[in-house]
Amino acid sequence: MKQFYLYFFIFFYSFSSFANKDSIVSFSTAVKKNIKQYISYSNKAYSKKDYIKATYLYDSLVSNTLVGTQFDDFSFKRIGKKKLQLSSIKIPTLIFTYASWCVIEKGEIPALNKMAQDYKGRIKIVVIFWDKKQNMKKIARKFNSQIEVCYAHESYSKDQVVIKLLKKTLGFPTSYYLDASRTVVSIKKRSSKPLYKIDFKTSLDNCLTALNTDINSLLVANSLNETRLATH
User: Fold this and answer.
1) Which of 124, 131, 184, 186 is the most buried if burial means most Cβ atoms within 10 Å?
2) 3-class secondary structure, 2
């Protein structure tokens, strides 16, 4: 087991340095360079029900090869609006991915709405549902106007690239944390099994605490990156 972890540390670390060089490496380039090896070993881990190893592989992929890359300038469909181009957002961004059939934590959407309002002008929250337009109108009404609600689906030809890179590679529900220049600060896979037995207030408090921590970490990382760029 120790040899396995050492091998994967070396494997992923060997690709991590390119994300820290002066030349900007795109998120999609990093994914394409590493994903086949990751999927191969990840599938073996899941087939053996070795969830600890599977989690380790995912975390290694993220921390050693994806963090520090520049997120691609994707565009996403919106209900009743023009497409959202990520490059049009000039502040740190949180992207949350779902599907319409996902069972979301009781307090998650209210917590996102509150954070979007509390941090208005400092961060932008984008939620992306891997779904068709006809399933989106009812869902979109649950989010306030400060949140960009978008959708993408395999049946739309122009969505194939983003579907392949985000949905089929890293799964969902997943959160992406980007600084103002779209540099990937963190990626987190969220639980797909909400805690049904806890009450709404507890769920809301838990979500608010987690979001506050993540947002403040993102703002600190963004400030450090801006300082670094200003001194170069």
Assistant:
1) 124
2) helix
* Domain limits for position 37: 2-66
Residues 188 and 225 in one domain: yes
Q: What is the pLDDT of residue 175?
A: 95
Q: Are residues 220 and 116 in the same domain?
A: yes
User: pLDDT confidence of 17, banded at 50, 70, 90?
Assistant: very low
Looking at 15, 46, 66, the residue that finishes a domain is: 66
- Supply φ then ψ for residue 125, to 5 degrees: -105, 125
User: What letter represents residue 230's amino acid?
Assistant: A
- Say yes or no to pLDDT of 109 above 90: yes
How many CB atoms lie under 10 A from the CB of residue 199? 10
Q: Domain check: are 49 and 95 in the same one? A: no
Nearest to 111 by CA among 184, 222, 185, 194: 194
Q: What share of the chain is helix, strand, coil (3-state, %, to 5)?
A: 55, 20, 30
